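ok here's Probable multidrug resistance protein NorM:
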Amino acid sequence: MKDPEKKLRNNIKMSKYNKISFSVFSDMIKDISFLKRMLGIAVPVTLQNLLNMIVNMLDTIMIGSLGTGAIAAVGLGNKVYFVFALLVFGISSGTGLLSAQYWGNKDVKSIRKVLGIGLLTAVSASFIFSAAAFFIPEILMKIFTESPETVNIGISYLTIVCFSYPFTAVTNIHVYALRATGQVTIPVITSISAIIINITANYMLIFGNFGMPALGVQGAAYATLIARAAECIAVLLIIRLKKSPLVCSLKEMFSFGNNIFRQFLVNSTPVIANELMWGLGITIYSIAYGRMGDNAVAAVTVATTFTDITLTVFMGLAAASVVILGNEMGADHLEKAKKYASYFYILSVLMGVFASIICLLAGERYSFMFNISDKVRHDVVICFLMHAFLQPFVGMSTVNLVGILRSGGDTKASFLIDISGVWLIGVPLAFIGGLVLKVPVYIVYAMVTSEEIYKTILGYIRYRKYKWLKNLTTELN
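and the structure:
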């Protein structure tokens, strides 16, 4: 460990930023430079994530017009994509955190090599998931539901949408590398284009408008494939037109040595494992909901489609923290990184309270956008109320575990806290509540989501140890 880092952590109690207090909040409000940097990253990232979530919501609304069975089938079929997307998110996060520190250290060559490693890993994973979804879709669907109708509808969706996975892998790796180098507008532009294509294709192919055949659920799958392919192509074209630092030859990307590959593994493996194990746990939640019946699946699918939108704000803050803290630590500005981390913690609490208010106001109104029974609608509204209470905890745990801790490579601690919450609390409670006690789905939903309280407490304890506060570019070279 470098002496400045050791001295900084040994004297941690001397700093006013050791505690989250009103004086720290006051400093944050006055720090115009920080606020501009934070908003410059968090707003575009939030907007991009929000747009993607809105597309998912519109998909659900359009598919919902086909009935509860269609909602359940597509919701469960997308669990395969969900697990894949989490794996790619883990690889992308590892790519992003290393790229952010190298950007702070002004080492563009290493960023390009990290990009190559990320692409190689993510695209390889996409081929595996695509093959599984295409060749054994029935086996995958039966993991989640016993309903023959839901399985058959899900198969028709999976065998088409699986071809979009490689495009998603290439897009996401580039997006996280772009964010790390401060280029946050390109992903927003390409996302907007993809959204327009997706909505238009959905309208044409699901319902048979503009002379196209009415393909129902299959139409939604084709629309997703077309949109993700277009987005991938747009990202690659724009970064070349704008002469991004990421533009390089294949040799520059893939001629990485053992040292930088080891750096990627050391920092990315816990993140990848974290997302996979977390995703598997969330998938098992779906198995529990699936065993409770299509109405339960539909209620949770509708509720989470909206509540996931509030998560975009937290993910935007987390992304901003990885870039800003990573840049500062890569430049060896550790004291400034520590100060900024305390600012992010305060922002996570404020945004959590705001998200709670949104959930309280939107629940019943949102439920009437879907063609669902009164029983399902009632369950959706109660799920909203349960989630409103937990929003501040979701905000703090997300920004800390996905952002602050990972920004300095403290990925093992983030991994242990996150997966223990899912596997020691969420998964057991899902099956106990849904299959043993057989309580209503909204009670099971609340029991499962309570893991966020656990993750918030343990995450804050780890944050206060400041083991995440380090310059990775000097420690691993």
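+1. The chain has a mean pLDDT of 87.
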